[in-house]
Write a structure and sequence with these properties.
about 160 residues; mainly alpha; 7 helices
């Protein structure tokens, strides 16, 4: 989907032009466009449409990556939900993202991670990577799979 349309470009160009009041005629840097332009202004409508297209694109991309991660877990033959949590946590995903991938509640994932940390104090997830980063790590074999935590598991 091409998110940048001609209407959006024209709206940005029109907002970029200086008027006889100077650039501040459009408002202060911290003001929202919604506060400066009227609700029926064509520029505001074009910008809101752009924001909607971006949101749809981001959601679609996230869904595809989550499905790809599920596929990678399946390729590795990891069927136990607890081991899946351990695996994804070792890559660096946090509770919320793991829960979304595995369709588990936040509490279920958090309890498993706390148990894992108690049993293996050396295991500390980064909890800062995004879905696409995890997928890249999984596909390139750069995961915590070689960590001693996973020595007892058969993949």
């Amino acid at each position: 989907m091409d998110c940048i349309t001609e209407d959006f470009k024209a709206a940005l160009r029109s907002l970029d032009k200086r008027n006889h009041y100077g650039i501040d005629g459009w408002g202060k840097p911290h003001e929202k466009l919604e506060d400066i332009l009227s609700p029926d202004d064509w520029r505001l409508k074009a910008i809101k449409a752009f924001r909607r297209r971006i949101k749809i694109t981001e959601d679609s991309r996230e869904s595809r990556v989550i499905n790809d991660i599920r596929g990678e877990i399946g390729k590795r033959g990891i069927t136990d939900k607890g081991v899946q949590i351990d695996y994804l946590y070792s890559i660096g995903l946090g509770c919320t993202r793991i829960g979304k991938i595995l369709k588990l509640s936040h509490n279920t994932v958090a309890d498993r991670i706390l148990k894992l940390r108690k049993e293996n104090p050396s295991v500390q997830g980064k909890n800062s990577i995004h879905y696409i980063d995890a997928l890249v790590l999984m596909r390139n074999g750069m995961t915590g799979i070689d960590d001693k935590t996973f020595k007892s598991y058969q993949y």
